[in-house]
Amino acid sequence: MVCPFGTIQKFFGRFAKFSEKVDKESCIGCKLCEKDCPSDAITVKTTDKKAEIETSLCLQCTNCQQICPKDAVHY
């Protein structure tokens, strides 16, 4: 049996109105959010050392928001 949740999440996550966003000014690129994300939706880019959230993978668990030392992740 195949669970359709992942497919549905990926499709609708792309168009999410209310999703986690990273304030690029506040982000220090510490990678704590990247390490704590259970769905691997966050990556810290090597070019600008800022976190970026792939909304189609984000589970809205708010782990990243809770662990961020600079309060750079918001809905």
In terms of quaternary structure, the protein is single chain
Average pLDDT works out at 85
Calculate the terminal CA-CA distance, rounded to whole Å.
34 Å
Compute the number of strand runs: 4
Reading off the top of the CATH hierarchy, the class is best stated as: Alpha Beta
Task: Using the CA coordinates, give the radius of gyration.
Answer: 13 Å
Class by alpha and beta content: alpha+beta
Strand content: 5-15%
The major β-sheet equals: 2 strands, antiparallel
Major sheet: arrangement of strands: 1-4
Residue share in helix: 25-40%
Order of helices and strands: HEHEEHE
Low-pLDDT residue spans: none
CATH topology, anyone?
Alpha-Beta Plaits
CATH architecture annotation name? 2-Layer Sandwich
* Count of helix runs: 3
Principal-axes geometry comes out as elongated
Number of domains: 1
